Amino acid sequence: MLDAALIAGGRSRRFGSDKAFATYEGAPLYAHQLRKLARLDVAQIYLSTHADQPYPEHIEGVTRLNDPGESIGPIGALHQVFSTSQAEQIYVLAVDMPLLEPDLALPGVPSINGRWEPLAAVYPRAAMLPLLESQIAAGEYSLQRLLDLAKQQGILSRHTVSRTQERSYANLNTIQDLADITDEGPGTTTLVRYRLGSGYSEPAPDHLAVEEPLEIRVNGTSIAVMMRTPGHDAELATGFLYTEGQIRSASEILDIEHCPDVDPEQRGNTLNVRLTAGDADLSSLTRHVFTSSSCGVCGKATIDSVFQDFPAIQCDAPAPIDPEIILSLPAKLRAQQETFDKTGGLHASALFDQTGELLLLREDVGRHNALDKVIGHALREQLDLQSAILLVSGRISFELMQKALAARVPVVAGISAPSSLAVDLAHRAGVTLVGFLRERGFNLYRPEIEGVAGGENS
Questions:
Q1: Rounded mean pLDDT of 412-421?
Q2: Does any domain span residue 328?
Q3: Which phi and psi angles does 256 have, rounded to 5°?
Q4: What's the pLDDT band for 17 if we cut at 50, 70, 90?
Q5: What is the rounded distance in angstroms from the CA atom of residue 104 to the CA atom of residue 215?
Q6: Given 299, 332, 357, which residue is the final one in a domain?
Q7: Which of 284, 299, 314 is where one domain is finished?
Q8: Among 100-109, 234-243, 282-291, 365-374, whose mean pLDDT is lowest?
Q9: Are 184 and 249 in contact (CB under 8 A)?
Q10: In this structure, what CATH number is given to the domain that contains residue 281?
Q11: pLDDT interval class at 168 (50, 70, 90)
């Protein structure tokens, strides 16, 4: 028999407030962690707290245990749980480890850089209880020394956490720690830079703005998939439902959580919103960026779905580019943006031939609309774009790359940066991708192009 315990009564001056009640993914941390434990096959869930913490009087399926008298830290919480439970094993989880998914396939206590992680572990209850009592009686409250002693006596085992798993064990010690895990860091890629006078640089690493799809479900029903930078997903879902008229206030949302029924690679990109009203009328939704019936989405799955409709262009032979021609394109585009000159507020997409001659330019307040206009004109006029160069006035997103691939354009350039998913799609589709195209240089995201790798100058 297995029980689970959430240790949520800790105090932290560094955090500045009670960590258990900090908001994470639209809910207090303690509620987020209890939901994870509820998905386990356990007989009982215990919530270890201080008596003065403002928890609800009743939490379904959870037994609250208050620290007795003066708190002696986590060792007192463990003793309270172990002496109350009758289970053979107890899974212990800290309230301030929101990234960790309970993994009962690894019994014992994890270790990172030689230090125990005592509040993310499976313990043999009966064997640990006498040791806890003796350490507390001796006034020894260090969990590290407690676990060293337990290991020496053969009571528990240690398993070392791999470097790829270390982030999952991150503790939230400060408000900045919470911000760091809710804001997705930059992606990385390899590129070569071209500069007038010095030619191509050696291939070098670079950062990208992360772009991933987010599937939003309402009461379990998939309603939309949108492209976004991961982070603050609960806020995005709330704003989306409000602007779509599905809710009138945030109080109509019961909870928001990332779906557990997805593959590990897709975890974090599928969000389920439960509304207090129960059944929702979804017929009025207007902003279906994508629709999906899958159990979750990720960048790889999204790119794979693109290739079902639009095959790669030339993965083994990326289109060659002439740096001088590429550098001349922004000025030609700017010279033809008549409406931009008057308003200063429009995006543009333009097609050029391989000599740099402007074939077509369209403007719109939306960058996607401008590109759709260009592609629509090409279709209506039956233009062959397989040797064309596309230039867009802003950043290069996944959706722009998808549209370019659909139109069979082999070279895409942008005045600003590409997103991580746009670079991934370009690499797999055989599209030559140019970013940060300015008067004196650009970044090339296909360093394998002949004459570029190795830093050869043109």
A1: 91
A2: no
A3: -135, 125
A4: confident
A5: 28
A6: 299
A7: 299
A8: 282-291
A9: no
A10: 3.10.20.10
A11: confident
Buried b (16+ CB within 10 A) or exposed e, 10-24: beeeebeebbbebeb
* CATH for 134: 3.90.550.10
Q: Is the dihedral of CA 208, 209, 213, 217 positive or negative?
A: positive
| Number of Cβ within a 10 Å radius of residue 304 | 11
Identify whether 444 is part of a domain: no
User: Both 136 and 92 in a single domain?
Assistant: yes
* Residues 158 and 270 reside in one and the same domain: no
Domain count, the chain: 2
Q: What is the C-alpha separation between 417 and 367, in angstroms, rounded? A: 14
Catalytic residue among 259, 295, 298, 315: 295
Average pLDDT over residues 267-292: 67
pLDDT of residue 194 exceeding 70, the answer is: yes
Length, in residues, of the chain: 458
Q: Three-class SS string for the chain?
A: CEEEEEECCCCCCCCCCCHHHCEECCEEHHHHHHHHHHCCCCCCEEEEECCCCCCCCCCCCEEEEECCCCCCCHHHHHHHHHHHCCCCEEEEEECCCCCCCCCCCCCEEEEECCEECCCEEEEEHHHHHHHHHHHHHCCCCCHHHHHHHHHHCCCCCEEECCHHHHHHHCCCCCHHHHHHHHECCCEEEEEEEEECCCEECCCEEEEEECCEEEEEEECCEEEEEEEECCECHHHHHHHHHHHCCCCCCHHHEEEEEECCCCCHHHCCCEEEEEECCCCCCCCCCCCCCECCCCCCCCHHHHHHHHHHHCCCCCCCCCCCCCHHHHHHHHHHHHHCCHHHHHHCCCEEEEEECCCCCEEEEEEECCHHHHHHHHHHHHHHCCCCCCCCEEEECCCECHHHHHHHHHCCCCEEEECCCEEHHHHHHHHHHCCEEEEEEECCEEEECCCCCCCCCCCCCC
- 20 and 110 co-located in one domain: yes
Residue 295 annotated as catalytic: yes
**Does residue 262 form part of some domain?**
yes
In a domain, 204, yes or no: no
Is the pTM here over 0.70, yes or no? no
Copy the structure tokens of residue 418.
């590409």
Q: Do 220 and 155 sit in the same domain of this protein?
A: no
Q: Are 148 and 103 in contact (CB under 8 A)?
A: no
28, β-bridge pairs: 23
Residue 154 domain boundaries: 2-178
For residue 456 the two structure tokens come to 């050869």
